[in-house]
Amino acid sequence: MPAALPPFPKPQETVGPPELLQLGTGAAATGTEEDEPCLRADAARNRARLLEAAARLVAEHGAAGVTMEAVAAAASVGKGTVFRRFGDRTGLLMALLDHSEKNFQAALLGGPPPLGPGAPPVERLRAFGCAMLRRSIAELDLQLAAEPSAERRYTSAPRRFLRGHVALLLRQAVPDADSELLSHTLMAYLDAALVHHLTEQCGVPPTRLRAGWTDLVARVTRTEPPPA
Amino acid sequence: MPAALPPFPKPQETVGPPELLQLGTGAAATGTEEDEPCLRADAARNRARLLEAAARLVAEHGAAGVTMEAVAAAASVGKGTVFRRFGDRTGLLMALLDHSEKNFQAALLGGPPPLGPGAPPVERLRAFGCAMLRRSIAELDLQLAAEPSAERRYTSAPRRFLRGHVALLLRQAVPDADSELLSHTLMAYLDAALVHHLTEQCGVPPTRLRAGWTDLVARVTRTEPPPA
DNA sequence: ATCCCAAACGGACCGCGGTCCAGTTTTCTT
DNA sequence: AAGAAAACTGGACCGCGGTCCGTTTGGGAT
């Protein structure tokens, strides 16, 4: 057993509260905001530099070009620092996606209907899926690269939040169903890897993907599909 | 661009016919059969030794302990040989699952109903899911370890076959639906990583998983759930 | 201003997946 | 039987993710 308690306090990013949901102001672009709670001055500065460097690398060479060593070098920082701050490569990539994630969560919780509260649950589900598909398609390579290993795939905070949201809507729309299991099924349709496969490798147009979602929601909730 | 045509003819295993389905006799245990079409004598011998060694390592240290170098050493073979034969780690692990895969395919195509032909499509779908769940749970760690990277996850031959099967049944059961997209949704429910998460990390009992499948099939096909 | 230590740093280090290529073995041809 | 082409082999090699640990530094306490 190579077990020994890690010298790092490990991941600052993804732990947070064990339950879901934390919001932040959508302030500046990548890096320059003030959300990490208690972080030493130099640490905060390096964190910002790392995120900026990573974003630049993504823009230049795509997500595949984001090497931990490259990011460290581009930020003029030691490799260990990158891992200390973000835990692992996935953590770094997820941090890069954090802004859009926060915005999305805000829209779900407090934005205008049908995405936000105020619309009937089935309608909100439809809107949710279409928004997710749009977002996934827009950030495909990053989302794909940020996918955690199979064991951790379903335990990341953003994913849990989104699935919880779907489960909540399902509970309202179909109280008699196993909304936990059903929410996993719905989320799976929106999975980045699947979306990538269908759009890039099978040539399925986004409109058909969205139509498929609408139909799926209708079937799962045993409702009629919308007229349009 | 580091592009250069590989010195290997690359993967002999997973290519095969571009379309689905190839069957084999379920002869001996791991390794000693005669399926690879044209393989030099020593190559065939080494292939068998590698599979045997890999199976032993899985049995001893779990799928995580199956290191390419370890397999090569255990089979008294060079590391390059392992990659030449199986392409990559995923290929080796999938080869390890090949027997059960072949058996499963055979049961779907020619076995007794309701899994095989003869039963109404919805009933076959139900049986398919339950069988898949049972198989996934039985081989969880190996299935998990054999999962390809996100880009290739949906292009492996076994996966394509199974999904095609579901799409076929769906086409019969709900001719008006987009059975391609729906089949992806149904398959996603049976995904090894999800099953692992639900059973191992959330403590969902298999019976509930199967009930969830039955319910999902009923909703998707807009049929009544079975009485029992 | 000084001390002190938890926190942060950085780069040497490790293991593994994957590639390359010079040399060996098999099989085909005549 | 001999020779040549094709297929196969093995291990040195590379890059990257991730860890370790000796050193530095920020910032609260005195």
From TrEMBL, chains A, B:
It comes from the Bacteria. Keywords: DNA-binding. Gene3D superfamilies: Tetracycline Repressor, domain 2. InterPro entries: Homeodomain-like_sf, HTH-type_TetR-like_transc_reg, HTH_TetR, Tet_transcr_reg_TetR-rel_C_sf. The keyword DNA-binding applies. Pfam families: TetR_N. Residues 44-104 form the HTH tetR-type domain. Residues 67-86 bind DNA. PANTHER family: HTH-TYPE TRANSCRIPTIONAL REGULATOR RUTR (PTHR30055), POSSIBLE TRANSCRIPTIONAL REGULATORY PROTEIN (PROBABLY TETR-FAMILY) (PTHR30055:SF209). This is TetR/AcrR family transcriptional regulator.
